[in-house]
Specification:
The chain has ten helices and nine strands. The protein has about 250 residues and is an alpha/beta fold. It comes from Candidatus Enterococcus testudinis.
Length: about 250
């Protein structure tokens, strides 16, 4: 079964990494929901892609220099559409509560954003929160930073881990060198340049960010494990049509 991964939630039609984006990903039954976490100045787990708030809010500055009260003053939706002007920067705890309230039964994969800043203790804090209660969903972790994956494996050894990469030639071998890494998440450019390697790759492959129907079909024909996309509902429709065609 090919997995549809909602990249930062349903970020093609909602402001990325916000509660509306995650609620929409649940509604369209995404198999996996992906999000990114950082640590704020007061050491809370914050869900946002960039290290700064500049691109996706009306504020400026690094997350690590701002407290939760300061982050909560920001508008995290108007950059996308006035319809979402009430959207705020969520904490990971708030996202987990939303997914639990919506009885999400899929997989939540948490990207540890330690590839630019090494947030001391982020792995421990994330794992502690995920193990603080029972959730209806399964949790995984992913990162560009292999050291972060090594740390989280020690802390949360039962969780599946995925290594993210762009086009770096050395990363596939690095992923395969760790038996606890379940899959590789490469940029689609790597898939394009390495179709034979990708077709026979021994662990799961979920390329990003696949938003065009033609590229979705290319990935499906290649036999990838999952498709990371900003448009999970669209990807689900493409997958359904592909399956029906294959069964004819």
């Amino acid at each position: 079964m090919v997995q549809i991964v909602a990249h930062r939630g349903s970020s093609g039609n909602r402001p990325e990494n916000t509660l509306p984006a995650f609620a929409e990903a649940v509604r369209v039954k995404a198999d996996i929901i992906e999000l990114d976490v950082h640590l704020s100045k007061d050491e809370q787990l914050i869900v946002m892609h960039d290290e700064t708030v500049d691109r996706t809010t009306n504020g400026k500055g690094r997350i690590c220099d701002l407290t939760v009260p300061q982050l909560k003053e920001l508008n995290a939706g108007s950059w996308f559409s006035d319809e979402y002007k009430a959207a705020k920067v969520p904490t990971l705890k708030e996202v987990l509560a939303l997914l639990a309230a919506r009885n999400y039964r899929g997989i939540l994969t948490i990207e540890l954003k330690t590839d630019h800043y090494d947030y001391p203790g982020i792995e421990e804090k994330t794992a502690a929160l995920l193990h603080s209660q029972a959730w209806p969903f399964v949790h995984w972790y992913c990162s560009f930073n292999i050291d972060s994956l090594d740390r989280i494996h020690t802390i949360d050894p039962e969780a599946k881990l995925n290594f993210i990469m762009g086009k770096a030639a050395d990363k596939p071998a690095l992923a395969l060198s760790r038996p606890y890494i379940e899959g590789l998440h490469p940029a689609y450019g790597w898939i394009e340049a390495n179709t034979e390697t990708a077709a026979a790759f021994p662990i799961s492959l979920r390329p990003w960010t696949i938003n065009e129907e033609a590229i979705m079909l290319d990935c499906l024909q290649l036999g990838v494990t999952g498709i990371i996309t900003d448009f999970p509902e669209k990807a689900g429709s493409v997958l359904q049509a592909f399956r029906e065609e294959q069964n004819q």
